[in-house]
Specification:
This protein is of the alpha+beta class. The mean pLDDT is 85. It contains five helices and six strands. The relative contact order is 0.13. The protein folds into two domains: 39 residues; 85 residues, Lrp/AsnC effector binding domain/regulation of amino acid metabolism (RAM) domain (Alpha-Beta Plaits), CATH 3.30.70.920.
């Protein structure tokens, strides 16, 4: 099944007929493997890779370093899950090093992201500090290059 996962991750095409041809299996075998992967929680969804400049051009993304206070009998998990549930949060990762959580957020503009951090994220009990870094340009996402060298000569799309 790891071959199936590798192919799904690379192509993001869930069509069992195509997958069966690639893997030299029957469609029924591929469908059975897909169902097993879903029930095990290994396959949790499909996410197309869309070039950031082709999405809503006004959206702003930021990486937020969050220091939190671990809780007895839960460590960082309860706060990480709480933060992950916010609509603005694209991703939330427990990290080692100078901060505890790396939170990637998206908003309609700089003000919306700043408001989210100052009014909603930093006010959560257990959040000790935050540091916000706005993403100016993406060069590679999920293993795919987003541009060729020298292709993006204009200024980054972020402005205050």
């Amino acid at each position: 099944m790891s071959n199936l996962l590798d192919i799904l991750q690379e192509t993001a095409d869930p069509d069992p007929t195509k997958l069966a041809k690639i893997l030299d299996l029957s469609v029924a075998d591929v469908e059975s493997q897909l169902e097993s992967l879903r029930s095990e929680g290994a396959l949790i969804g499909w996410v197309p890779l869309v070039h950031p400049s082709k999405k809503d051009g006004n959206l702003v993304r930021a990486v937020i370093e969050v220091k939190i206070s671990p809780e007895r009998e839960g460590g960082f998990d309860r706060l990480a899950h709480r933060i992950s549930k916010f609509e603005e949060v694209e991703a939330c990762h427990l990290m080692s090093g100078g901060y505890d959580l790396m939170v990637i957020v998206q908003g309609k503009n700089l003000h919306a992201v700043a408001s989210f951090v100052s009014e909603r994220l930093s006010t959560i009990e257990g959040v000790l500090s935050t540091a916000t870094h706005f993403l100016l340009r993406s060069y590679k996402e999920h293993g795919h290059l987003l541009s060729k060298e020298g292709e993006n000569s204009e200024k980054p799309p972020i402005s205050a």
